[in-house]
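in:
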């Protein structure tokens, strides 16, 4: 019996990256900028991963944003927007120290106020998994200074460190979303995150592809490729 012949693929991911070629060099350093072309199974509709758990939206937008923490190849928490953290009171309090010198794509400084606002006004209200997991157990979030965020729980809460990556808890810019409806804010289709890419197309599918440039803070020194 003949093997199956596929006339179309319902899902595909095509990434095209062009690297400059320099003769005489055996190994090239990654170049900043370039064009990333991705085909996904559905139109994302918008590019705000904090108000939805839609796979299409997250696939298209997660590289524009960061969480407080990331995950390594084993799935363990690693620093991202937070450079360090401590667990206090038997797991009922988590204290995060944020990176210094980090800016949003428009140049505005990233602070603890962005984290507090994102969780209290967006994630716990609109992101289904964050709402379900934290809504009933979170007592409050404090931002005692620009680089410190404190999560206070009603009782010890063990899973938090695994719920702070860009998928579960992407941080949004307070200065863009404050005072607006996060579900209809114009930035949802023209975002200004803190991730690897800052130029994305708008409009319905098919979407044209725009050049994407990676911006990083000159003060950031973490060894991850995000910094």
């Amino acid at each position: 019996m003949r093997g199956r012949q596929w006339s179309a693929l319902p899902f595909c991911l095509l990434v095209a990256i062009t690297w400059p070629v320099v003769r005489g060099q055996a190994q090239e350093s990654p170049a900043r900028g370039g064009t990333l072309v991705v085909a996904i199974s559905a139109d994302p509709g918008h590019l705000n991963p904090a108000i939805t758990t839609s796979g299409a939206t997250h696939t298209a937008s997660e590289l524009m944003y960061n969480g407080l923490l990331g995950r390594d190849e084993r799935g363990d928490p690693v620093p991202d927007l937070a450079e360090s953290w401590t667990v206090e009171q038997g797991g009922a309090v988590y204290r995060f120290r944020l990176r210094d010198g980090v800016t949003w794509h428009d140049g505005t400084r990233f602070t603890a106020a962005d984290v507090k606002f994102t969780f209290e006004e967006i994630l716990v209200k609109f992101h289904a998994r964050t709402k379900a997991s934290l809504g009933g157990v979170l007592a409050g979030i404090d931002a005692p200074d620009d680089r410190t965020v404190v999560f206070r729980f009603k009782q010890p809460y063990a899973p938090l460190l695994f719920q702070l990556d860009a998928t579960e808890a992407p941080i949004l810019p307070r200065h863009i979303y404050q005072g607006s409806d996060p579900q209809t804010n114009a930035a949802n289709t023209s975002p200004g995150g803190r991730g690897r890419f800052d130029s994305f197309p708008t409009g319905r599918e098919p979407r044209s592809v725009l050049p994407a440039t990676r911006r990083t803070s000159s003060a950031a020194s973490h060894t991850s490729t995000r910094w």
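note: The longest helix spans residues 112-126.
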